[in-house]
Amino acid sequence: MTPSRRHALGRLSRVAATALAATAALGLPAAASAQQAGTDKPWPDKPIRLIVPYSPGGGTDILARHVAERLRQRLGQSVVVDNRPGANGVIGTDIVAKSAPDGTTLVLVVNTHLLNPLLMRQLPYDTFKDLTPVTKVATSPMVIVVNSDLPARNVRELTALMRKAPDKVSYGSSENMTRLVGAMFVRAQGVPDAVHVPYKGGAPLMADVAAGSTTIGVTSILTARPFITSGKLRPIAVTGAKRTDALPDVPTMIEEGAKDFETHTDYTLYAPSATPRAILERIQQEVAAVITTPEMVKILGDQAAVPGGAPVADTEAQVRKDAAFWQKAVTDVGLKPE
Fold it and tell me: What pLDDT digit, counting tens, does each position of 25-66 carry?
C-alpha cells in the first residue's frame, strides 16, 4: 500500500470515529448516524410492507390502504398492505416484532395491542420491548350496532330486550379492544352473562350482526359505516364524548345515561424496537404529511376519524398513558386472560 493510500484511509477512519463519537454524544443509534451521513442507502431503499393484523374490509384495513397509496406516491416506493388476521392481531404483529429493524416492515394496530398483554396468557413477543410506536395515524369513536330488524331503536329499548331474554344475548368482538367495550356495554345494561363471540376482524363481525347471528356488535365507524348506509345495521350509540358528524342522529352512550362511557379507537403505527431513531422520525414525518392533507382529512372526517401524526417522542409518552388507562379499565370490568 502506498503512503498516500495509507494516509487517505487513516483520514477516513478519523472522520468515521468523529462521526461515531458525535452520535454517542447525541444519544442517536450508530445506524441512524450512518444513514444521515450518507454511508447507507436512504430510507426507503426497498418496498415497504404495511401489515394489518386484522381481516380485509375492517376499519384498520381501510385506513391502511388510504395511507399506503399516498405514501407510495410521496416516496416513489412500493407500499404493500399485507393482511395477517388472527389471535387478536398477534399473528401479524409478531411478524413485525421479528422483522429486520430497517423501517420497511411496519404494523398498524388498534388499542387491542396494549390490551393483549392484559387479556392473553402468553404472547410470542414483548409488547413494550420488541415493538416501538411511530405515530398515531387516526382516532375515531366506536359505534354499537344491532340488526336492523331487531325491535330496538335506542339503548333503553335494547336493554329491555336483553333483560327479557339474557340467555339469548351475545356480543361480538374483532379483537380485545372491542371485547372490552362490548363487556363494558352489557355489564352497564345489567346483562353481565351475555355470550362473547370472537371474530378475526370487524367486517365478518358486522356481517354476522347484520345476519342476526350475533345480537350486538362493537366496532369502529370506519368498519360499520357501509352496513349502516345499506340499512343492514342500526347504530344504537357512539362511544365518544359528543356526537359525530358521520352519524349525527346517533346519541352518545353518555347521552343515553352511561356517565363515564367514553372510549375511542386509536390506529397506531409500530415498528421493530431496534429501528434507528432517524428512520422512525422520517416515517412519522411522511405519515403526518399524508394524513393531514385536505383530501385525507375529509376522508377521515367522513368516517368520524381525525388525523394523528404526532412526533415519535409524543407518541411514546401517550402510549404509556394509554397502557395505564386500559389496565385500569380491564380491572374495573373484571375481564380475565384467556
Answer: 333 344 444 444 433 568 999 999 999 999 898 889 999 999
Q: Are 105 and 283 in contact (CB under 8 A)?
A: no
Cβ neighbour number for residue 93 with a 10 Å cutoff: 27
The dihedral over CA atoms of 171, 172, 177, 180, expressed in degrees to the nearest 10, equals 20
Ordered DSSP codes for 33-73: HHHHHTSSPPSPSS-EEEEE-S-TTSHHHHHHHHHHHHHHH
Distance separating alpha carbons of residues 178 and 144, to the nearest angstrom = 10
Other Cβ atoms less than 10 A from the Cβ of 337: the count is 11
Q: Is the pLDDT of residue 16 over 60?
A: no
pTM of the model: 0.79
pLDDT at 175: 86
- Any idea which residue has 495509507 for its cell? 6
| DSSP character at residue 194 | P
Query: Whats the size of the chain, residue-wise?
Result: 338
